[in-house]
Design goal:
Layout (H helix, E strand, L loop, with lengths): L16 H4 L5 H15 L1 H7 L11 H13 L5 H10 L1 H7 L10 H9 L6 H11 L1 H4 L6 E10 L7 E3 L31 E3 L6 E4 L6 E12 L5 E8 L4 H13 L6 E4 L6 H9 L3 E4 L18 H7 L3 H10 L11 H28 L1
Parallel strand pairs: 1-7, 7-8
Antiparallel strand pairs: 1-5, 2-3, 4-5, 5-6
Helix pairs in contact: 2-8, 2-14, 4-14, 5-7, 8-14
Length: 364
């Protein structure tokens, strides 16, 4: 029988959001992992807001859940995220908003998000997820890989001007909020003499020969080799030594046990880096620049070197997801601390998207 096209005229409607979310929806398992990790951060949230008085802020738990949704669903801006929260019951359920609760203003959300910078909450959240008992069982403690990637800054190369130039205008200012045309051909520019007036923390960096120089940051990830999950992150200025320095810092941060292996590409093949790894008790499995030594004899590789070199390439999957789905090929933030916050959230979102299937496979 054909149904009637009739508009309901009921004055009241009672909606149970829990019933509207499918029992097998992927976000259900992700939300449970997120909530368990947030419980472990309760003391950090209390300390972060201890000195505040006045009106209650947006709950930090809701802030983090909303930021994770932004990465998982490739939402470009906070304004679009707030618009989605206005009508999407799935988003409201995940964040913790009831059907009748108003959403936040985009600027209010951004100001409250910046509060999380003071407590380094994003990095602590990533560690809290990895420290969950059922997640910790999945991770390798003996074999790791490391790599770095460029993250384009939210700044134009036209903003890269001499440091003694007034950032508010000058001869290159086009007026009316526009940049005047400028020919940079033949002009020598470097990070020592120039800085971006838009984002002073960004650095001009060229990835390789034939590649254009661009204002960017460098994001680094330490990956465990068993499941290919990111276990530590670091965001630095883009320099030629940043990858090796960040790798050592992440190893210390993760407290990698002595005897573990670390796979890396040719960019890490420096004797000082290998020496520092060995002093830290980590065995370097760094890609060789040449298969033969100075005398033409083949270089003897350590045991497990081929396996490390094969598995380390999986770290590109992390960067690929972070830049495409996570929307972090070009950051939306300015300033190193804000860019690091967004990078940590994007990496945490990658882990959370993969964990349900990994946990199901471990339980089978």
């Amino acid at each position: 029988m054909r149904g009637e096209d009739r508009t309901t005229d009921q004055l009241f409607s009672y909606v149970n959001v829990e019933d509207r979310i499918a029992s097998d929806h992927p976000l259900r398992q992700i939300r449970q992992l997120v909530n368990d990790a947030l419980k472990a951060l309760d003391a950090d949230f209390t300390a972060l807001y201890a000195q505040d008085t006045g009106r209650p802020s947006i709950a930090p738990e809701r802030l983090l859940r909303a930021m994770l949704l932004q990465a998982i669903y490739s939402i470009r801006s906070e304004r679009q995220l707030m618009e989605r929260l206005e009508f999407d019951l799935l988003f409201r359920w995940f964040v913790g908003l009831g059907p009748d609760e108003p959403t936040w203003d985009a600027s209010t959300f951004s100001k409250n998000r910046d509060r999380l910078l003071d407590g380094d909450i994003a990095a602590k959240f990533l560690n809290a997820v990895l420290s969950l008992r059922r997640v910790k069982k999945l991770l390798s403690r003996e074999h790791f890989s490391v790599d770095g990637t460029l993250i384009e800054a939210w700044a134009s190369t036209k903003s890269f001007r001499p440091k003694d130039t007034d950032s508010g205008g000058g001869p290159d200012s086009g007026g009316g909020g526009r940049n005047a045309p400028h020919d940079f051909h033949g002009e020598k520019r470097s990070n020592q003499t120039h800085a971006s007036s838009t984002d002073p923390d960004a650095r001009l960096y060229r990835k390789g020969r034939g590649k254009p120089a661009q204002l960017c940051y460098m994001g680094h990830v330490l990956m465990e080799n068993r499941q290919g999950l990111a276990v530590a992150t670091q965001l630095t200025h883009a320099t030629g030594r940043a990858e090796r320095e960040a790798a050592l810092e992440m190893i210390r941060k993760r407290k990698v046990k002595r005897g573990a292996t670390l796979g890396a590409d040719k960019g890490y093949n420096a004797w000082t880096f290998k020496r520092d790894l060995e002093q830290a008790g980590v065995r370097p499995h760094v890609a060789l620049k040449s298969e033969t030594g100075r005398c033409g004899l083949p270089i003897k590789t350590p045991e497990g070197y081929e396996v490390s070199q094969r598995i380390r390439k999986r770290i590109e999957e992390i960067f690929g997801w972070t830049k495409t789905t996570g929307g972090y090929a070009k950051t939306k933030f300015r300033g190193k601390r804000r860019v690091a916050l967004g990078f940590d959230i994007a990496i945490a979102a990658y882990n959370l998207v993969r964990l349900p299937k990994l946990l199901a496979g471990a339980a089978a």
